[in-house]
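Example (one chain per record):
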Amino acid sequence: MATDAEDRPDIDALVAELRARVAARRASGEYPPGLEEDLETRFGHLRRHGVVPARPFDVRAQLARMADALPLGRGRIPLTSARPAGAAVHQIVARAVARQTEGILQQVQSFAQPARESIEALADAVERLDRTLRDEVIPALDAVIERQAAAERQAAERQAAAERQAAAERQAAGRGGASAGDPGD
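Predicted structure:
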C-alpha cells in the first residue's frame, strides 16, 4: 500500500529535470537571446504592481440568490414557534401589525428591486470589461512589451557591437603606430 509520501512527486528531482531541459534548449538556440531577462522584467513588473490572480467570484450566483429573495412579502415571515401556543400568539401579533409590516415590506421592496437591477447592470459591465481586458488590452500590452524588449535587446546589441568596434580600432591604432616604423627612415 502506497503512503502519501510515496505518492508525492520528488520536487527536487522535478526542478533538476526542468533546469536540465531549459539548459539544453538554451544551448540548442531554441530559446531566443534575452528571453530570461524579458521574463524577469515582466514578472518584476507584475510583482511591483501587486498583480495577483483574482479570486473567482460568481456574481451571477449571488444575483440568483437576490432574485430568489424577492419579492418580499408577509407570507414569507414564519409564524411557527417551538413553544406551546406560540404559533397562535405570532399569528395574533402578525395580524395586529400587518399594516405596518406591509408598509415596511413595500419600502424595502421599492429599494431592493432597483438595487438588484443596478447590481445586474454592474455585473454586466464588469463582465464586458473583463472580456475586453482578456481579449484586447492584455494581448495588445503583451505585444507592446515584446516589441519594447526586442528594441532594447537590439539597442544593447548595437551598443555592444559599437564598443567592440571601438576597442578593435583602438587596438589596431595602438599596433599600427608601433609597427609602422620611424617615419624618418
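Caption: The CA atoms of residues 155 and 161 lie 10 Å apart.
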